[in-house]
């Protein structure tokens, strides 16, 4: 991969990668850090990465970097928790986007990731499998289960009102 191809990859994929990570982690600063670190890793492996597979490399690297950071933060949080439940949402929702985001947040991490990659980013099952380290059939199962969970959540009136 050349420096020009790297610069082109930054222009083409930085926003998509940021949006994907942000949807998963819901933290703008963390999403920016993950995107920056992903491009840094790509720069370090510039000679090893095939220019035709740079998008897949970036999303795979970004996904795994995000998971590493979230796991590290979860361990730190668990050590410092005082056991109190803090309410996180208001009682009424007026925006369907918020309701959908809440529904996505309730999904297990792997289901949320494959649904975001498929429905928001438009990846094929094979590409999602490569990014998430799953087989194509596992991807299909997780997407199906996630969509069923989303449907069950969204049809309950108390979740929308």
SSE topology:
Layout: H1 3-25, H2 28-44, H3 54-80, H4 96-106, H5 109-120, H6 125-132, H7 136-155, H8 157-160
Helix pairs in contact: 1-2, 1-3, 2-3, 3-6, 4-7, 5-6, 5-7, 6-7
Please state the second-level CATH architecture of the largest domain: Orthogonal Bundle
**Overall 3D shape:** globular
Determine the mean pLDDT: 79
**How far apart are the first and last residues' alpha carbons, in Å?**
51 Å
Rg from Cα: 18 Å
Q: Please trace the helix and strand order, writing H or E for each element.
A: HHHHHHHH
Compute the number of strand runs.
Answer: 0
Structure description:
The protein has helices at 3-25, 28-44, 54-80, 96-106, 109-120, 125-132, 136-155, 157-160. By secondary structure, the protein is mainly alpha-helical. The protein folds into 2 domains: 1-86, Rna Polymerase Sigma Factor, Chain: A (Orthogonal Bundle); 89-161, Winged helix-like DNA-binding domain superfamily/Winged helix DNA-binding domain (Arc Repressor Mutant, subunit A), CATH 1.10.10. Helix 4 (96-106) packs across helix 7 (136-155). Mean pLDDT is 79; it is low at 85-93.
